[in-house]
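Please check the following.

. . .
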Amino acid sequence: MINISEGRDPQVLGALDRAAGASLRDRHSDPHHHRSVFTLINSPDQLRLDVRELARRALSLIDLTTHRGVHPRLGVLDVVPFVPLGEESLSDAIVERNHTARWIGEELGIPVFLYGPLAPGTTRDLPTVRREAFHSLAPEWGPRDLDPRSGAAAVGAREILVAWNLWLRGVSLEETRALARELRRPGLRTLGLSTGEFTQVSCNLVDWTTVGPREVYDAVRQRVGADRLERAELVGLAPRALLDTLAPEEWPQLGFAESTTIENRLA
């Protein structure tokens, strides 16, 4: 799920789709976030080629100095996570992360911050990178100063997470942010954002086996009322195993469908 700071221009998005090549399985774009999530899945060699071409194309087309969106960002090539699937392990993802991070830093000249497992026994999460980059945290690769047109990149290795949003109607931004703080816990990351006529609780279900979408949806509905919870939205793809924890009749309400599972897009 490569996060790129462009969610509005159809010509730019079309060019990025083409750059992602055969590995592209899904793209989710949001004009309020001004951000797109590209899900790329393939064999290691082909994936490496497509990730690099997507990165090059994004940096050639996007100027961050003119970018305005509600989602926090470090750069054009904002987040590049490597996630093991099937027989691949987190160690395999770390190898790909490190190769790609070095390439981005050396070949593209972008400051790169790593997240996920680092030295033995240590780890760093993405919120820490966002909070501490260029302050207490120096980039692992690339220049020490950033170009404001391109910014920096966070390149990580992690297990599957589910990006998922709840859209609220008639709820103030202050109340939405307070709700996001209340919901936040291990296994669940949240932000409260303004999205046009709505507000949004933007969620990362970091461990959906511990904190699942049903639990979060019901907590928000109880807090704001059913009439103000407009809809749920999946960003990218979800593992079929998550859908198996829910009754099929629940899927539409929670923003899931068979067609948006990882397994369906690989079939």
The first helix runs from residue 10 to 20. The chain is about 35% helix and 25% strand. The longest strand covers residues 162-169. The mean pLDDT is 96.
